[in-house]
Backbone:
């Protein structure tokens, strides 16, 4: 048994305040009424504004330290000691505040949407590499905690699929480094541009003020991404129930599970909503799964010659997986095109895009769009 990390336990503890959810609350929450949507939007805007303000204050502390420190030309050691110490303390305080406030915002969003948690931080089954096999509420709480704390999802799902099996490792490393350096690189580029434009008229001390809007903007953008992802995960579990009924997999869900696994590989992430969809298709029971579950060619071979109903179910599963994670990436679009094309069908692009849009905006999964999509 693999224990949850300290951050995950803290996140779940923060989210589990309140009364237990009603028995059917998770089965109706993907549709948000106007008052719930307004409340979520208000919480989201407040979180973004507070994050931007925290970035301004943190950057301002660093700038002020640079102004008050001894001149770097005559006393470089003292200058960098003062500026470095103040910047480090301000950054730690900023980061701590952002995490705490993100957890509070996500908890408020879950509450506004009618979701309550009363779960205990539990051990996870090591066979799923970190994917909890506990209750639905526990899985949702863990997914929300990870979203609020910007923790990556486990690399393997209940299906045992490696999302990076066909990814370029060097590309993944470079993308991670670029993400970590985003604020520093943006600061450097803006300062270089200002020096170029203003030349000698811009004192170095004033150029340091560039850090204020840059840090505020990045904090706001990242927080927006965090709360938007949390909102999607809030509605995802009940959306999974609706999509499972639409897929209509019979006694043998393997073709549908293969379709889900292929989407995981193309997305290069085990999104919690796809995980919830997989659990629904598995009907909560253990099942012997093939080793090549995420192999696209194996899926196509399985579908060629299969009854038209089985083909339709697998295509619906692929569409559902592409919709429920809130994204429709180039790789996912290519997968849908290849699957539909191999079976001589046209991808219902307008319905797929509309389903994704309505789900991410809290309008639920419209039945007319599901029917039109196949």
Residues:
């Amino acid at each position: 048994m693999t224990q949850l990390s300290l951050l995950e336990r803290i996140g779940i503890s923060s989210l589990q305040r309140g009364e237990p959810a009603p028995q059917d609350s998770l089965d109706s929450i993907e549709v948000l009424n106007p008052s719930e949507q307004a409340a979520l939007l208000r919480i989201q805007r407040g979180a973004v504004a507070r994050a931007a303000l925290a970035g301004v204050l943190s950057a301002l502390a660093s700038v002020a330290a640079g102004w008050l420190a001894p001149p770097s030309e005559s006393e470089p050691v003292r200058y960098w000691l003062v500026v470095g110490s103040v910047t480090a303390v301000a950054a730690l305080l900023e980061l701590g505040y952002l995490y705490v406030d993100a957890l509070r915002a996500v908890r408020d969003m879950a509450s506004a949407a009618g979701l309550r948690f009363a779960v205990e931080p539990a051990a996870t089954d090591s066979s799923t590499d970190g994917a909890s096999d506990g209750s639905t509420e526990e899985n949702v709480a863990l997914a929300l905690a990870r979203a609020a704390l910007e923790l990556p999802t486990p690399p393997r799902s209940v299906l045992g699929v490696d999302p990076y099996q066909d990814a370029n490792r060097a590309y993944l490393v470079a993308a991670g480094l670029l993400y970590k350096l985003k604020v520093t690189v943006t600061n450097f580029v803006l300062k270089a541009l200002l020096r170029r434009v203003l030349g000698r008229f811009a004192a170095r001390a004033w150029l340091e003020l560039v850090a204020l809007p840059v840090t505020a903007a990045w904090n706001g953008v990242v927080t927006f991404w965090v709360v938007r992802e949390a909102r999607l995960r809030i509605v995802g579990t009940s959306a999974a129930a609706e999509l499972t009924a639409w897929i209509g997999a019979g006694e043998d869900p393997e073709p549908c599970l293969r379709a889900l696994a292929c989407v995981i590989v193309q997305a290069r992430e085990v999104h919690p909503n796809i995980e919830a969809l997989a659990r629904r298709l598995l009907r909560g029971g253990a099942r012997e799964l093939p080793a090549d579950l995420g192999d696209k060619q194996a899926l196509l071979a399985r579908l060629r010659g299969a009854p038209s109903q089985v083909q339709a179910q697998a295509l619906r599963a692929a569409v559902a997986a592409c919709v429920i994670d809130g994204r429709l990436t180039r790789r996912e679009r290519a997968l849908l095109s290849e699957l539909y094309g191999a079976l001589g069908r046209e991808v219902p692009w307008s319905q797929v895009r509309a389903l994704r849009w309505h789900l991410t905006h809290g309008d639920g999964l419209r039945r007319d769009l599901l029917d039109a999509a196949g």
Summary: DSSP finds 15 helices and no strands in the chain.
